[in-house]
Amino acid sequence: MSEKKALLVCNAYPSENNIYKNGFIHRRVKLYLKNNLDIVVFCVNNKFTNLIYDNYDGVTVIRGNKTDYESFLKENDFHSYLIHFISKDKYDPIIETKVNPKIIIWIHGSEVEAWHRRWFDFLTSREALKRTLYYTIKYYPERIEFLNNLYSQETYDVTFIYVSRWFKENVADVDARTSPKKYEIIPNVVDGELFNYLEKDKNKRKKILSIRPFANMKYSNDLTVEAILELSTKDYFYDLEFSIYGDGKYFDSVLEPIRKFENVNIHKGFLKQDEISALHKEYGVFICPTRWDSQGVSMCEAMSSGLVPISTNITAIPEFVKHNKTGLLALPESGKSLARQVEKLYFDENLFLNISREAAKGIREIAGQDKVISKELDVILGGQFD
Questions:
Q1: Contact 333, 193 (CB under 8 A)
Q2: Is 117 helix (H, G, I), strand (E, B) or coil?
Q3: Do residue 134 and residue 273 come from a single domain?
Q4: What is the mean pLDDT of each run of 10 residues along the chain (386 residues)?
Q5: Do 283 and 172 share a domain, yes or no?
Q6: How many CB atoms lie within 10 A of CB 282?
């Protein structure tokens, strides 16, 4: 067994046919490999009927169901076991087949939240509300009990990693009704080389970019639309340019009210990381309101490129954006407040330039590769990494 070999277990991983599935995990793995950690990924999903060995972008990826996973663990040993999106199917086979395993568990959000946290989703339709009520009986109690037991256990060497302090203290601990003894606060990594900073021209403050999923109401794309409608009443409106990229079931309906504006460019579809980085160079402002975020990775990547983020003063966002210094924060549920932040930048080019520089600097200090990956490798290898 290699002292520097780890197994990462997750529910989904990018493939040639779907490059977006948990891409943030893939970025971590690539950086681990770059720093000489030998790592294998096992994607556990019962949709797989056969064990599949794959090489995706230089990463060894094994895809299989729970039975395949259990067999694999019996035949292979690793220094550390890394789990993203914790569940019994991923955790139990490790403690049942290994002696004193070293386990690191990332807590991202949806896997630990109580049912009421994402209220904005189950209010979208009668069917969504019925589905949520069903889960409150059949799913959430069992999951919360599992997490409570997991946080409280002292038999195994388990360390938890949370991407923000706000999320740990206000959601994960509260919903599980306890707090683990071993944990670290380490945000999702931002690739400062891919999302490199180039000083912005002052006129880029008039070019506003949005790259967001439209699969649910978490991302507040409806508030971006409200902001644009508010700005359309201003005499300087057509001096602004908006570009909106994304897809999902709400894409067409949410954006319909602003399709009439000639300075609003709408692009349906997802983008690769290098395409996003290239777009960052063409714009100066990244509008990204939210109703719920444990970090806001796309916002952080935009900051790394020097875009001024306009987000919402809610959940974990203020942990990553300091208002008027590294970005601008609007009031929750207020398209008018978002519009005021755009207007503030339009009339103050020095504010725009200063925040642009500070955003790129500030996010590197919080979530840059050197800081995040060195911390994670230290946890994974217990101080053995050099």
A1: no
A2: helix
A3: no
A4: 80 85 90 95 94 95 97 96 95 97 89 57 63 60 83 94 95 86 95 96 98 91 98 98 95 98 96 94 98 94 98 97 98 98 98 98 96 95 59
A5: no
A6: 11
Q: Please name the helix (run of DSSP H) or strand (run of DSSP E) that holds residue 221, with its range, or none.
A: helix 221-231
Question: How far apart, in whole angstroms, are the C-alpha atoms of residue 288 and residue 285?
Answer: 10
Residues 157 and 17 both lie in one domain: yes
Per the domain annotation, does 265 fall within a domain? yes
Q: Are residues 165 and 209 in the same domain?
A: no
Amino acid making up residue 73: L
Beta bridge partners of 1: none
CB distance 16 to 63 below 8 Å: no
Rg of the Cα trace of the chain? Answer: 22
Q: Is the C-alpha dihedral spanning 66, 110, 8, 381 positive or negative?
A: negative
pTM of the model: 0.88
Q: Please report how many Cα atoms fall inside a 13 Å half-sphere around the Cα of residue 241, on the Cβ side.
A: 10
In a domain? residue 195: no
Residues 213 and 169 in one domain: no
